[in-house]
Amino acid sequence: MSANLLSPVLTSLQLATVTTAVLLLLGVPLAFALSQMRGVLRGLLESLVAVPLVLPPTVLGFYLLLLLGANGPLGSLGLVFSFPGLVIGSVLFSLPFMVRPAQSAFEAIPASVFEAGASLGLGPWQRFITLALPMAKTGVVSGAMLSFAHTLGEFGVVLMVGGNIPDKTRVLSIAIFDAVEQADYAQAHILSLALVLFSFAAMLLVSTLALRGGRS
Amino acid sequence: MKLDICHRLSGFDLRLKTDLPDTGITAITGPSGAGKTTVLRMIAGFVRGQGSVQFKDRVLQDETVFVPAEARKFGYVTQDGGLFSHLSVDQNLGFAERRARAGGVPRGAVCAALGIEHLLSHRTSHLSGGERQRVCLARSLLANPELLLLDEPFSALDEESRAKVVVNLQGLLQELKIPVLLVVHEFASLVSLADSGLYLEQGTVRAQGSLNRLLMHPDLPFAQKENACVVLNARFAEYDSRFALARLRIGQHFISTSARPDHLGSTTRIRIRANDVSISCQKQSGSSIQNSIAVKLLEIRDSKQPAGQVLAILDAGDFKLMARLTKRSVVELGLKPGDQVFAQIKASAALAPD
Questions:
Q1: What class has domain A3-55+82-154+165-215?
Q2: ipTM of this predicted complex?
């Protein structure tokens, strides 16, 4: 594989790994908090988390560009057209893919489990770590797989926030777009096929996990 | 345990201002939907509601204070359990042991009493409903909490294992000296476990006091039951192996029974059913009934069912008894409140607990 081909693959893998890690750290506790919440605030937060599912990625990218851009409120951080900027965009864009499956898994745990935990002296954080996480393991792993695969395939947000800087912010999907633009179908084929195979494998793993989780 | 609570439930308000004993087993009983579980959940710290909750010297809740459930650390066992499904039975118990208050009973004793030794290596998902409840009970007991809250903890057990668990649990609780609040529906568990109780209906207290007070209460359903009874603490005084008869001492009276208690000198709870007690005006000698006790007839109540019968409340000095009589014998014997009569209790009667 030429360096030309390898670089966007590596950038994509790196982005998906970092994004998934950030989502595990932020999205999973958020999912647990949502699963334990009641009332209006929960509805509000759930909708907010779900918005990227239906929003055109370019819209999210556009607002992020305004926010992070040189003249934006966070412009001084220099995040736009950088790898950290890409991560921020990807985290927001893939948030529902992490939160949704994790939240469902947390919701499937009966309240009596957490009550039993509390009556044994576990505070909210300990209940999350020692009871909720291990019991919702399959949901969390599914969420991580989905987020990883979704980040690999994203296009609009990374294009808007990251630009298309070779070796830095040029990811797989953009490389494919470029290749097609330049009528380099051979390169487009290789990258596309790799993405199809990987995505299929990831989904297969997620549904296997879901089946196993449903049985136990 | 001082309670002064108010909580809106569907259709009515739960209003409770009472002082519950800090020792022994206190039952919270009453019809379904009376608010029993909510009382327990407020004490556990799972429902906030309004008002104040105080256990011993600790204010758990008032206008400004709310101690969270994890700081109360009261044992809590419900109908559906709350077992940790990612852990085995053994690990569930270990989880509680690591967080236990000092001075509990060893695991072996708890598991033997609840009959779960053979389940230790099992996954919790493979347990039956009754097994789950017993493991939950064991887990709570092993944590040796300051107060144990039990919400229908035997509902999934079949009759036979319930009777066994109840007897063994009684022994364990005596050893642990943990006060217990028990939400209970079935009569059998109430009779065999509770020392005192509270009868809730539509969120308010209908009656409160010792177990016998509830069992004899004219407004509660217990005295009207077919197996209406009183529960007495008896000491095993002697045993006649020739006739397989035990003599039990209750206060200053002696009763012979065919039940065989564990060992001489031990105390046991016995249950004397109204159907096994009759009344005569003279002390009988030629009767097949062994036990005759001088009592004062306190009250004769018409019982709604079965027709033609009455319930007599008898005072033996140290304790009271109930006797189910026919209306005809009341008339024939000319019985009226205040009479000095003799209560006759069948020796073969169900004197043993359950």
A1: mainly alpha
A2: 0.85
